[in-house]
User: Fold these one by one.
Assistant:
Number 1:
Amino acid sequence: QVQLVQSGAEVKKPGASVKLSCKATGYTFSDYYIHWVRQAPGQGLEWMGIINPSFVRTTYAQKFQGRVTMTRDRSTSTVYMELNSLISEDTAVYYCARDGDIYGAYGGFFDYWGRGTPVIVSS
Amino acid sequence: QSVLTQPPSVSAAPGQRVTISCSGSSSNIGNNYVSWYQQLPGTAPKLLIYGDNQRPSGIPDRFSGSKSGTSATLGITGLQTGDEADYYCGTWDNSLSARVFGGGTKLTVL
């Protein structure tokens, strides 16, 4: 079955970087885009960007451009998201989610989600 | 401030029907498909509806989606206590070139 297995919780100081992983199993890795979505404590969902694992094409939300990098390792079917220059407002649970719209017929949607990785940014 | 507007909370009794609205604009809902997600406390979101009104396999037909103009609606019939969760709408925004979500609606089953 499809699973997205995310890395463990992180605690970082302001100004540091964090690199999270998301390992995909149960389907052909290169066939589906992967999104990253974060959720601050008690807040809603915020989209960060998307990566095409096949061609390593990425699109980032304007808010994170210049600070986020999404990459992939096809040999391990793993996607990575690195966020730099962390501030306290980056404290959140970070989710990876698969885009289930393989043929692009429905404008994209998140059909499988990882369990999330909590990131705490504190001095 | 979310791009899509949802009511912060809705409530209804077990067995009743509830609707959750999601309001946007021509740059998002008006020209793109809407999806809906259920987030139970302490868990990751779960896809309920995609393509405005399509249910993934395994999602009961108690859940339905509709869209008219720049607004979308999630309907839930036969409410159960297990439906208590936060519900989010989402779509693509052409002006922002980004996926956007509503602020979420907390459903309470009284």
Number 2:
Amino acid sequence: NAGVTQTPKFQVLKTGQSMTLQCAQDMNHNSMYWYRQDPGMGLRLIYYSASEGTTDKGEVPNGYNVSRLNKREFSLRLESAAPSQTSVYFCASSEVVTKPGELFFGEGSRLTVL
Amino acid sequence: AQKITQTQPGMFVQEKEAVTLDCTYDTSDPSYGLFWYKQPSSGEMIFLIYQGSYDQQNATEGRYSLNFQKARKSANLVISASQLGDSAMYFCAMRRRSGAGSYQLTFGKGTKLSVIP
């Protein structure tokens, strides 16, 4: 049971470099999300996609872009990485009907920007 | 604005004892949901328990129960008979509708629970 799969799990970047975090889910969920987790801050929503073809900003979208490639895949791109983007990134998906809002998380991607 | 507050950065509990992790929330929506997630040191997020705002009874899932006091806007997690494996970060989260057929979860900052043998 794959669930939500994120790649890569670890990445080190230099300031100004770009990268894309990939996320795929196999649960046929409509909604997908990207969160970042920083010590003492909990999880904060970066972007979400309510359904294929739509994306919306969350609480902390600056410095990020997203693409909902299809129903399964939702990628997060850092165009010009900054040290403030050092964080653990979680992708999640949710099913509206059975338990609205419950998130199924990937294992997280730890990003360090030097 | 939606807000989740967890006032206990860290908690200690003796093995086999019960522990309560506090969570208060603020919302003007009549319909909302409250979740608790566990994050062990390995980093994954594990769903524990859910309470809907219209649910009449407090949610229970095995050793986990949610003490839901709607008037006080609190949704405390109670873990009975603590085990060493319960040592982890615990996050309270609240659901709100963000558009047609879409929801968001807002998370608290978490409580780190340490179970002492």
